[in-house]
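Two records follow; treat each independently.
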Amino acid sequence: MTAPICTGYLTPSDDRIRSTTVTITPAGPHATPVPEEHPVPDWDYFTDLAADWALHVDLPALLQDCGLSPAADLRWFLSWHSSATNRRGNSVPVKLADGDNQTSVEVPGSEIGGRLHLEARLVLAVPDTGVLSPLAPDRPGAILWQDRRRFRLEGSGSRFPVVGTGFADSGLAEGRRALWYLSCATDLDATDTGSIRLHLNTDHSAISAMLNHPDAKQSRVLAEILQHDLARQLIQTALRCEELQDSHDYGQGTLGELFLNLVRRYFPGRSLSDLRSQNGHDPGELEAVLQGIDEVLL
């Protein structure tokens, strides 16, 4: 049993705040919210996530418990942490209201893996000048309440290494000013992370800008193009790999599993033989379908 933690100030009773729903929604044309503690189906490096958290709050009782006045400025926000990459992020704090509250945070697929830890936190935004108790929280950022949830990512599709490489010195792409180079083996029983490696050309100004300023508009557009091109290349590699079969179980974390999950995500209900036939007689049509599914640059 975990021992209680003394904060040094009053905090609300457990029944003042109730988490009603917590979901993760993968990006894509067939997105379905995933409940807490459930694995995210067919998640892979290309899939961004949206985390949504809903609360029901008895605000007057909460303020009374904490010794705060009705004028107190309370904010709450979501934060996420990936176990595999140790990357973190959070949403913008929003004002807590009496009754139903909801907020969300975007989680970039390229920065996560393993398990995704999601946390909701309620804090005092500014000191309350009308405090009703000497034990009331009085420092900005004082944590009044927090709750955690966890989602499984790996196993239904996983990350692969991304390496910043100067193409001029390494000789990749004959040393030319290419944007990126995707290396992919074809041993279906090998690990996916050991079979695939993405090299980003740090000699290219657009790549350097994307790495150094990922939130800039041009960087976001380039990242969308990159994600689409990686999916396109991997699907093309999967279709060329004649040993890849719909019905075979390649095992968790293998290249074969990643190929099948990726194909099923983009083309649910279609067989590999059907896709190979279309790619053989009209590859341009398949490329256009992929663009339409990804809604490239839209």
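The next record belongs to a different protein.
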Amino acid sequence: MRKLILSLLLILSLSLSYALQVLEPEYHPKIIHPGDDVDLWVKVYNDNYNDNYRVENLVIKITPYYPFELKQVNPTKGEVIVNELNPGEDYTAYFKLHVNENAESGDYKIKIEVSYDLVNIKTNEKYHYNYGKIFYLPIYGVADFVVNGNFSLVPAKTMVVPITIKNVGTGKAKDVNVYVCYLLNSTNIGSYQKQVSAYETTITESKNIAFPVPIPLKSSLIYPVGESKFYLSTLNPKEEKKIFVKLYTSPKAFEGSYPLPIVITWTDEDGTKKAQLMYLGAYVKGDIILDVSNVITSPREIKPGDNYVRIDVTITNNGHAEAKDVKVKLITKKPFKDSWSNCNFKGIGNLLPGMSKVVSFYIDVDKYAEAKHYKLPLEIYYLDPEDNKHEEIEYIDIYVKAKPLFKILTKEFNVTAGKDNTIYIKIKNIGNEKAVRVRISAIKTAGQPFDYPQKSDIIGTLYPNQTGVGAIVVSVDKNAIPKPYRVTLEIRCAGDSEEGDDNVYVYQEPIILNVKKGSSNILYIIGVVILIAIALFFKFVKRKNEENNG
């Protein structure tokens, strides 16, 4: 009986102490944030309650609760198996946990369970035990921010706009400061990032400084006017606050969305000071202004009668919005016409603000065109950013310069076969410039029955509307077939150098030579015989009369 009572007391004492202690877990990192992977060490110890007992078949098991998730396998997920622990020995089990990214600040529990056999070393008596302990691990939520603003800006204007700052993180943010920075161009984004890094470095070094917001430059596109720093105190998770900022937009800002830099500094719940650079999409809405910024022609000086004149027109978008699917059509009318069908309707694609594109047209100029300035309409079609259709008309100035031009007043001449025929050609300067050293020449063509003892003649100077006469000699072959022949006449002259025209002009115009058949030699001889016979007859009659009277 006594022995039984002692055994029961021993069992009771062992059941109260379990002979195995589970110590407080250690973990890394020491400050746990949402999204972290946590290394966890659980130490168990055979506390040597009785030197005659050792621990065998020890199983250490972890049960995580939200926001923890078990990641490691040992080789059974969440379990560590130890064969034995002698009195006074310990063992440290390792586990790896992951913290849910959306976990808010708080103390979260984990459960450690042990299962083992307690074996009497001397008698080999075995007792089985299992029990669990709850531990709590602190998690510090992290603040995170988004900025929103539903507004549009107008170039060259100052506007007060609302900006909403929301804490979308899992932790409370204290001492929140918002800095609205200026936007110069895309190159200054890196500059702000460096300032944020410098700010965080100085905080790490325990220096109490404010974020250095630069002073806006004259070349800034968008920048705050007046107050640019706003103190928001504390922002809890999911809480938002609104600030009102006065922003000026440069007239050089074109239509589109611009990344306005905003810096937020705050202190997290674990006492860490942080800074974050974000960009608020500031939409600038502008107009579209399409202009003709330059016109170049080839040749540079356009004269009446020129063909395939190239006109290069530069179209520039001087507005603040993009013009899409731009099409341009040159409208020609007398004294101009398209050089070929549909050549003067061109598509030039999209034109961003400040962008230019060159479009080329080709025209023919009537040879009787008056020398003066002409306004040619240019129809421009395009779509705005909302795909609305627009049409407008611009005008390009084309100057047609004066030049001599000739008209042959007498175009048909009769010439006799077998003879040298002098023909007198009358021409008139119907152009609008003085013609100097006017010369006419016949162009000999193979196969025609003509030779030219004198193929050219100098007329001299002809003023506009003045006429002149030149002579050429045409020798017609005696066997030429009587009919009209088309002969090319070249007219050559120099421009009026007093007006800066040093060009030489060459024209070719047709004339008609009507060949007539000449008299034959037999008829000529018969005629001579008849004349002689008549002369002899009258001489005979005269002699008879003298004899009769004598």
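Discussion point: The first strand starts at residue 20 and ends at 22. How would you locate this feature using only the token line?
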